[in-house]
Amino acid sequence: MAEAEYAAELPPREAMEFDVVIVGAGPAGLAAAIRLKQLAAEAGSDVSVVVVEKGSAVGAHILSGAVIDPKGLNRLIPDWKEKGAPVETAVTDDRFYFLTKTKALRLPNMFMPPLMSNHGNYIVSLGALVTWLGEQAAEMGVEVYPGFAASEVLYDENGAVVGIATGDMGVGRDGQPTDAFVRGMELRGKYTFFAEGARGSLTKSLIEQFRLSDGRDPQKFGIGLKELWRIAPEKHQPGLVQHSFGWPLDDRTGGGSFLYHYGEDLVAVGFVLHLNYENPYLSPYDEFQRFKTHPSIRGTFEGGKRIGYGARAITEGGWQSIPKLTFPGGALLGCAAGFVNVPRIKGSHNAILSGMAAAEAAFAALAEGRQQDELSAYETAVREGDIAADLKPVRNAKPLWSRFGTYLGIALGGLDMWINTLIPGGLFTLSHKKPDYATLKRAQNAKTIDYPKPDGVLTFDRLTNVSFSGTNHEENQPVHLKLTDTRVPVAINLPEFAEPAQRYCPAGVYEIVVEPGGDPRFQINAQNCVHCKTCDIKDPSQNINWVCPEGGGGPNYAGM
To answer: What is the pTM of this model?
Structure first.
């Protein structure tokens, strides 16, 4: 039976009406929901708000370092300390290192631009903070629905966004309803906010539908990989924030690392690799594992135990790559729009501020009786407010790194940030060049990389680590990693790029399998997917389209 025929036989979805529908229960989406309820309380009125979250619980899909700038939280909930927010470990020691293969050279803090200082910031589990924000939102009357994936944007006859539909549940791998089939719901709103995080599937379609990136630089991305360790108490230094760059990456491959000491003997160790890398044989996951073996790093983990793992794409384009934020009936919030400050490795404060700004624009519009139009006040608030003040001074750091390599690029980036500190607005703005999928060299022109085998104590293989992410998908569901052309991986990507999906995926989803006496075939192990979106970004043929699996599937991060 054809898919269109199957769809025609489905019963109509039930619909629910709200003032504002929010996709994604992250910092941006929850901040928007909370701010809407605050404004309604101040005005003595009411506003109906719903938040849908594809993770099994609020916070289940949240992955970040994280050292947060409390600016956004201070503004959203000024008494967050009294209300018990899980924000406890203040930064007490801030270190930057340049790594060679055997040495760690500390860079003096006095040479760092003031904006790079972590004084006044906190080391947190962003997942725990988001869980707490979800509780605050629910107490205020926000309807929060975890385990429901927004799978479709709804439009009216004029092309305005009027809400979203959640995905059907209980669809078999063959695309047919099973005995457990449940039709999705339509959640309709006067305004709909998309706060899906980096490379959100609906956000991607909206950017194309409304041409939101026209006249902007291509968005740039990184992949962030993280492990959570409980280390020996005598090695724990609460409040220590340590960043590094250099080894194991070469000069033409951008990225860096972090170690954050917080909580009860916890260390978050992570590695961020820019997805404009050139060598198709490079594996971000294996570079992360190799980083932990550095003589200055490995001692931290001796006697410790890894207790969590995850990976996630990060928006890195900055000011030049922010798309148009509004369209008839909705807006893009947080990392869906790309508000990460790359040199600071921070975005949650801007995500919260963007959620608040969108809420204020929507509440004013609702008070005027408006709906499904463009919230131009939100765009103005971002372009002229605190988010702009945060992102504009660092706008050249990423382009300089990409153009001149790690050693010279970081030095020039630091100089440019100093200039922007002393001369607000700076002297110039550099553009990004190619999108990340277009930067790979052909395999025949690249050097293979021989990665050491994991020892199972400090370094681990992909699948073992994936088991520490809590990832789970209903096996009998359609594969959510869609190939535009099933022939491309073997016919094009394999001979031209040695099929890099085998290496850029941090969860072992993609394999080239060769049976004895047979031809190579491309295998997708969709059940391993940690929803990082790297494949959707880096595939050189742009042949992989990541769509939401059944709601509740994916990682279940604990304390990440």
So the answer is: 0.95
